[in-house]
Amino acid sequence: MNIFITGISKGLGLELANQYAGGGHTVIGISRSAPRGIDPQITCLIGDVTAPTCETIIRNGIARLHCLDLVINNAGCGSHGSQLDMIDPVELSSQLELHCVGVLVVAKATLEKLRNSNSPKIVNVTSRLGSIRKHLRGDFHRRTFNVVVTSSSDERRRWLNEAKELAANVFCEKGTQKQP
C-alpha cells in the first residue's frame, strides 16, 4: 500500500508511520518539524497543513507515486478549555484551521492519487470525544458543553497500542484482513 500520514513527528502519527513502513508499505508523511526515531524508509515532508504552500509541498512529495491507497489525517492539537467559559476564541480559531481546513487541504492535495487506487481510504483521527467506547461508558454524560479535550498520557499510550494492532492486523493488501 501507498500511505500518506500527517503529523508524523511524534505520537500516533510517528507510530503509524513506523509500523506501516516496517510492514513493507510505502509511507510518505508530513509534519511541522523533522521527526526523530522514524524509519529511514519513510519520506518525510516538512510543512504545516494550515500554510498556503502545503498543498504544493504534498503534491510534490507524492508525485512519484502512481496512487495513494490510504491517507491518515492525524495532525492535531488539544485545547486548554473544554467548557464554554474556558474557551479562548483565538485558540479555537487556530484549532478549526488545523482540524478542518488542514484536512481539506490534505484531501485536495492527495485526491488525484487517491482516485488512482482500487480501494482508496481517508482516515481522520479525532480527539477522545470521538471515542464510541467512552460515550457508551458514559464518560461524557454530565458534561454540558465540550469542544476539544486534551488526551491524557494514559490515553495516548492506549492509542499507540491500538495503532500497533491496527497496523499489524487490519490493513493488508486489497482490503483483506489478517487473522490474529
Can you put this structure into words, describing what you see?
The protein is of the alpha/beta class and 180 residues long. The chain is globular, with a radius of gyration of 17 Å. It starts with a strand and ends in an 11-residue tail after the last helix. The protein has a five-stranded parallel β-sheet, with helices on both faces. It is built from five helices and five strands, in the order E-H-E-E-H-E-H-E-H-H. It has helices at residues 11-22, 54-62, 89-115, 132-137, 153-169; strands at 2-6, 26-31, 43-46, 70-73, 121-124. Helix content is 39%, strand content 13%. It has one domain: NAD(P)-binding Rossmann-like Domain (Rossmann fold, 3-Layer(aba) Sandwich), CATH 3.40.50.720. Helix 1 links the parallel strand 1 and strand 2.
State the main characteristics.
180 residues; five-stranded parallel beta sheet; 5 helices; Rossmann fold; globular; alpha/beta; single chain; 39% helix
